[in-house]
């Protein structure tokens, strides 16, 4: 049985540029290490044994362009920090790739290598409750919770 997400690893074209983006702009203020070919951060409370770690791997061969699908990774933020972080991210030059139409506060933006990112206020319980209250155009929804 899966217990949770262990880590996220992404390929980047420039370790230093991405390191600075994720540390200074995105707010991963707990870097673990950085080399010419990789960098590691903690995303969350380092005292939590299940704290997510996030890694960057240098890969200049990858094609860099945003995916057309909605595949992305989302990180939780507190409501009181949301607006300030949104402003910080957009002022950094990060491109917003879509408007939020989902329940809860979200900002969808691209990192320096065009990986789709999201910051979000809320949890899965709030999302499911909102979808139950207003399923939109979804038909024949089978709820398990």
UniProtKB/TrEMBL annotation:
Q: Which SUPFAM superfamilies has this protein been placed in?
A: Glyoxalase/Bleomycin resistance protein/Dihydroxybiphenyl dioxygenase
**InterPro entries attached to this UniProt entry:** Fosfomycin_Res_Enzymes, Glyas_Bleomycin-R_OHBP_Dase, Glyas_Fos-R_dOase_dom, Glyoxalase_1_CS, VOC_core
Does the entry feature the keyword Cell cycle, yes or no? Answer: no
What are the UniProt keywords, alphabetically? Dioxygenase, Metal-binding, Oxidoreductase
Q: Which Pfam families did the record assign?
A: Glyoxalase (PF00903)
Tell me which residues make up the VOC domain.
Answer: 4-122
- Could you cite one Gene Ontology molecular function of this protein? lactoylglutathione lyase activity
Q: PROSITE patterns this protein is in?
A: GLYOXALASE_I_1, VOC
Q: What is this protein called?
A: Glyoxalase/Bleomycin resistance /Dioxygenase superfamily protein
